[in-house]
Design goal:
Distance between the termini: 43 Å
Largest sheet: 10 strands, mixed
Order of helices and strands: HEEHHEEEEEEEEEHEHEEEEEEEEH
CATH class: Mainly Beta
Mean pLDDT: 87
Number of helices: 6
Helix content: 10-25%
Number of strands: 20
């Protein structure tokens, strides 16, 4: 009788934990000594598919996620020392592109304005455009991420394929930063005004740094999600690059902004250079650029080129409260590389 009571008590506690967004998860120590946590889904793909009706998708688009940094936490650094690390690259893949090339290989947009700015708003000059080529590469490997927060709210972010089953997005798109996980994720690559040309990808596992999961350290606002299916084999994926000098980079940033003047239904691209590094929100110092993105673009990739190959080298993470024309990404250094390598090996 006592054993039965103990079992009921234990089961009740587990259900309470799962019901509040908390879950029993595996903690992993990486080679650099930092800890990440692996989170397994609590809902099957069939249940998620049934849950996300058109009405709920619309509600999620009305609640795009964003993280804002208080003005007093925004400390501009133009001469920040770079972390010491060897440049790292994982190759892109495009099954139907000549030599994996893309129309974006030459960053075919007007050159953005000034960089290395002393002004916090905007961090640097930028250009932007709607991108309608949702069935071309790389647009088809970028998509919307729908989710339910730990409070039960329906919400949306952006994300991208960076390997055959591996998706890159922001940490704040998968967890609260205070220890609670979100749920019922599904990823729609090539999303365009409600169209789902390649179906939906469902969460198989998620990896986040403990320092973001539990305390919301901005410099580690990175998440890796393994899907249950190999969507990248047919669609391709972005390469992944770390330990680049941000002062020399030109980034093409993608996302699905969902607040005025946008509605979340259209892919938008922004082209800009580094404005400054941001201290006060974790190390290594994140990177600030000029951008028109609004909430909903969170998690979308920052892309750099090497010849005609495309590499994710940042993501839409945060905005200063005081400036709607600046976006911030974690610096993709050793930490960004190590979590990618671990997740890639587990897919």
């Amino acid at each position: 009788m006592r054993k039965n009571l103990f079992f009921v008590f234990f089961l009740t506690i587990c259900l309470l934990i799962l019901g509040t967004g908390w879950s029993l998860a595996e903690e992993i120590k990486l080679n650099d000594g930092k800890f990440i946590t692996s989170h397994a889904p609590q809902t099957s793909p069939d249940e998620i598919k049934a849950f996300w009706t058109q009405e709920r998708m619309f509600q999620a688009l009305e609640n795009p996620l964003i993280k804002e940094i208080l003005t007093e936490d925004l400390k501009m650094k133009l001469d920040a020392a770079e972390p010491v690390g060897e440049p790292q690259n994982s190759p892109p893949y495009c099954p139907d592109c000549p030599k994996n090339q893309s129309d974006y290989g030459a960053m075919g947009q007007p050159e953005p304005g000034s960089s290395l700015s002393a002004s916090p708003c905007p961090a640097s000059g930028y250009t932007w455009a709607y991108d309608q080529a949702n069935t071309s590469y790389p647009e088809r490997v970028i998509g919307r991420l729908f989710l339910v927060t730990n409070t039960g709210a329906l919400a949306s972010c952006s994300a991208s394929l960076i390997n055959r089953r591996l998706v890159l997005t922001a940490g704040h798109c998968v967890c609260s930063g205070t220890g609670a996980w979100f749920s019922k994720f599904y990823f729609i690559p090539g999303y365009k005004n409600g169209a789902e040309p390649y179906g939906r990808g469902y969460e198989g596992n998620i990896f986040v740094y403990n320092d973001y999961l539990y305390t919301g350290v901005w410099s580690l606002d990175i998440a890796m999600m393994i899907l249950t299916a190999d969507m990248g084999n047919s669609l391709g994926w972005l390469g992944y690059s770390a330990n680049r000098d941000p002062a020399t980079q030109l980034w093409l940033q993608f996302g699905y902004p969902a607040q005025n003047p946008f509605d979340g239904n259209w892919l938008v691209s922004v082209l800009s250079r580094m404005g400054y590094r941001v201290s006060g929100i974790g190390s290594p110092y994140p990177v600030a650029v000029g951008s028109i993105f609004t909430p909903g673009a969170s998690g979308g990739p920052w892309i750099v080129t090497n010849g005609s190959d495309l590499y994710a080298n940042g993501l839409n993470s945060a905005k200063p409260v005081s400036c709607g024309e600046t976006s911030i990404s974690p610096y993709f250094g050793d930490a960004a590389w190590n979590i990618f390598e671990y997740a890639k090996d587990k897919q």
